[in-house]
Give the backbone structure.
Amino acid sequence: MHVGGGYGRTSFSNPYGSSIYGDVVDTPVFLAGGQFGYNWQNNSWVLGVELDASRAVSDGTNSCLAAAGNIVSANCKASPTAFVAGTGRLGYAFGPQGHTLAYIKAGVAWQNNRGDVVNNNEYFGFMSQETTHFDYGRVGGIIGFGIEQALTPAWSVKFEYDSLQFGGPSVVTSPTVQFPPFAILPPNTTSLSSSYQIGKVALNYHFGADPRAAPKWFDPQLYAKTTDPIRPIAFAAGWSFEGGSRLWPSRGRFQWDNSAVPSISGDPSILESRLTYHQLDGLSGELFGRLDSPWGIFLKGYVGAGRFNRGNMNDEDWGIYGISYTDTISGQSNGKFTYYTADAGFDLLRSTDYKVGGFIGWTYYGQKSDTPGCVQLANIFFPCLEPGDNTIIGKQSTHWNAPRIGVSGETMLAERWRVSADIAYLPWTDFSGRDNHLLRPTTTFFDQRGNGGGGVQAQGVLSYFITNNFSVGIGGRYWAMWTKKDSDFMCSGCGGPGTIAGPEFAKYSMERWGVFFQVAYKLD
């Protein structure tokens, strides 16, 4: 069985010409499933075949078909629901008695992908809003690599990275409005393609071996607390604690979809505006720790804070002010973010060289930033500030909370090397935020609220022990959270000073990802 997490991208071609913005939908993915296969070993070389299948939870939306400011463009949604792959593996066994396998894999894969192409607000009901739904399966390719560690004669754990590529069908789009000059553009077609980058933690059972057999493969003397040879242990018989710090360069994204419903009837995915904060490059520092008990129960978590002064905000509007489509771009400044996770779990499998268990916990992410400048990209009839004018036009703050359910595993690969990974599914999210529009004649702010939805958090670390207790490491991390499409917001000041308007439907989503560096110290 396996669990995994990562991100994907579904691309939509634009039949109307080159797009001003959009056409690529980010699709964060959590997946879980199973695999079976067969291995042939000749000395240290291993050949294998494997078939795996996964159920996926995913969500993504973005603008598409935005060829010009006088065309009402669309909102594209994509959501992969399942993956199946058949691969061949080539590996090399190394380490104490050859119980660590490094391998590469390649083969064919199949996905099911579903979603919609939804015309955005066409002048508040001037035309009947139409939606094109797609639900298709496609065969593509997969390549990957990983490390598999024998835990006992019957059990092994593996940590794997996969890259998947798929083509897609041509989907018929709905008629849309062009103005000016006024015209109804007939139905057309958009071609789809998609790719995914997935990390997995998997547990394998090997037939023909005694599942109750003790792991008598290693010399117990190697686990003594000596410095020569260096042999850190994953699991100690008593209490143990490992803690340290990390430096995390990362990139972030936040998206607010403002529905045209209930002003018009139909799907809440029909938008009148969207704000997308992207390329939010930041640097954070954090403290982390894990406490293990003699009974297999563990507590772990981390807390961090960072800043960013880079990034862009695209503000898109449809069918308002008598304009088909506008898209302004602004910068980002004075950005700050904070985060933490706290988990409690139990190791189902453990020995001196490995730990594999499940956990439940909680995560929080908060972010705020200022938006300077405003340049129109799409429509000359709706100008914004002059280029170079960096007046602060808006402020945005966000707060995300969610429960976590996940799998945690770590294993020693060699005398000094350890690999570990966490994959967490977020079954529900709670979001609150505030957006301040500062260019309006009256003070205007939007109180944003959302829940439901879901998310994924994935992380992997490769550590090197300089001594039995002190280690350095490098890792990668990906987070994504989203709300339901019928979340909402209230506007204070939209109808004049002191007025409160709403609620109106909205949807919110965030991502942050990057590579981190860590130092840690372990006490047994």
Q: What stands out?
A: The mean pLDDT is 90. DSSP finds no helices and 27 strands in the chain. Residues 232-524 form a domain with the Lipocalin fold (CATH 2.40.128.90). The chain has two domains: 1-217, 232-524.
